[in-house]
Structure formats: structure tokens, C-alpha cells
Amino acid sequence: MEYKDFMDFKSAEGVTFDPTTWLEVTQEMIDHFAQATHDHQWIHVDEARAAKESPYKKTIAHGFLSLGLITKFLSEAVQVKSLKMGFNYGIDQVRFPHPVAVGALLRGIVSVEKIEDQKFGGLKIIWNIKVEIKDIKKPACIASMTTLAYE
After folding, report:
1. pLDDT tens for residues 66-97?
2. How is the chain split among helix, strand and coil, in percent rounded to 5?
3. Sign for the pseudo-dihedral over CA of 63, 67, 72, 74
């Protein structure tokens, strides 16, 4: 969904946007995330061991990789043309109900819970984001995220 400016975007309070496109979680993504975060637990990066010892029989993505993708899904779900800059203010109520196996397809379901005016013409936006896994009933991640935005 696209909005012209903040005045227009304020009408999005309470709106759930169309799902984003599916994104495949590759081993390369998982490995890069492991390198960036220094989290090299075998369940994420050792494909041979995961095939033998994991109940999933393949590697799984870090939960925080799923969480990290919410900004990608947010920017795909909604754009405000007048936006000059935005900041992540905080994340609340994060849960990882289902692991994400390598090769899984993820998408975001984004809704706006609340929009509040801020100093300097900014907005504080509380988003609810669900990261769905294709063909899996439980989501990979659910979170409430607050951002500050300025035009």
C-alpha cells in the first residue's frame, strides 16, 4: 500500500495490509546471519550434522533472522512517499512459535495498531507483524514493533 504523506498515512491505523511476497530462506542467508551475529550453533550452520541429529533433518534459521526480516516485510507492505527517515524504537512481545527450516518460504503480514503524533512533525507507529511460513499453520515470528518516522 502506498500513501502520499503522513496525513494520508494516519488513515492506516487499524489496517492490515496485503501479505508480502514469499521469500526463500537459503543456507547462504543463514550462514551470513551466523557470521554477522557470531552465532554458529550447529543446528543453523552444520548441514551434515543437522541431517543426522536434528528432529527437522535440515538446518533451521536463527529466530532472530526471522525477526530481522520484519523490516523488509514492513517496507514491502507499506510505503509513505514523504518519508525522509525512520528509526526502530523498540520491539515488544516477540515470539517464535515455529522453527524455520532451510528452504522454507516466509512472508509478512503487517498491520498498524496505533499512530501517534511526535515532536518535529514525526509519527510514532506501533506495528503488529506476523512472519508466516508457507504450508505451516504456526508462524515463524510474531512481534509488536514501534518505529519513529519523519517527513
Report:
1. 999 999 999 999 999 999 999 999 999 999 99
2. 30, 35, 35
3. positive
Parent domain of 16: 2-150
Of residues 50, 52, 53, 71, the one with CA closest to residue 61: 50
Task: Return the bridge partners of 129, or none.
Answer: 110, 143
Which residues pair with residue 106 across a beta bridge? Answer: 23, 133
d(CA 40, CA 103): 19
Residue 79 sits in a domain whose CATH number is 3.10.129.10
3-class DSSP assignment, residue 119: helix
Number of domains within the chain? 1
Q: What is the pTM of this model?
A: 0.92
Residues found in the chain: 151
pLDDT tens, 113-124?
999 999 999 999
